[in-house]
Amino acid sequence: MTADNPGRRWAVAVAGCGSIGRMHVRAFKELGANVVAVSSRRVEQARAVAEAEGCEFTTDAEALVRRPDVELVAVTTSSGSHARVTLAAIAAGKHVVVEKPMAMSPSDAGQMIAAAEARGVMLSVISQRRFEPTHQAVKRAQAPELKTICDFRLESVGRGSPVVRSSRRSNSVFTLLSLER
Predict the structure, then answer these.
(1) In a shared domain, residues 74 and 105
(2) Is the distance from CB of 181 to CB of 162 less than 8 angstroms?
(3) One of 29, 94, 100, 139 is an active-site residue; which one?
């Protein structure tokens, strides 16, 4: 789904079927994407994920990224292969979400960025932010006594200054109007 076309479903492939790859598959499905295929070097792992998720599989990540029915590729393979698989996906005209680290060298990272810019595709790198103060503030706000926090907006006001604001009342035990550190 996209903001300009809410009914549109992205056709996604996930390279790598380890725990992070499986997390990506679930996340894309929750976002309404169509996960069409996965890959893993280990055939039994690729087959298991594909069967569980109702998609196709391969053991060849580079063949996966060349599939004509794929628009976006999530690269969750071992770190040393991120640049190779990402560059192959970009060359095939695919948008890419790559796990961290983006690449094993600044040179490879620069090649990935240059290739995406030249091809006109999106390149996004996963950045875990769960230990940053802003995200920790949200976690603290989700205390058990709150049950649920509905409809909040997260703003970062300068480094280390988390602000969480509710934009309307919710059905939780109490409404979180503001949490400032």
Answers:
(1) yes
(2) yes
(3) 100
Tell me the per-residue pLDDT of 88-112, one tens digit each, with 9 for 90 and over: 999 999 999 999 999 999 999 999 9
Rounded Cα–Cα distance for residues 103 and 89 (Å): 14
Please confirm, yes or no, whether 147 is among the known catalytic residues: no
Domain range for 160 is 133-180
Q: Which residues contact 121 (CB under 8 A, 6 or more apart)?
A: 90, 93, 94, 95, 96
In a shared domain, residues 152 and 119: no
Average the pLDDT over 59-81 and give the result. Answer: 97
Split into its structural domains, the chain has a count of 2
Q: b/e per residue, 121-155, with b = 16+ CB within 10 A?
A: bebebbeeeeeeebeebbeebeeeeeeebeebeee
Q: Is residue 139 part of a domain?
A: yes
Q: What is the pTM of this model?
A: 0.71
| Cα-based angle 82, 12, 103 (whole degrees, multiple of 5) | 10
SS3 content of the chain, % helix, strand, coil (to 5): 35, 20, 40
pLDDT at 131: 76
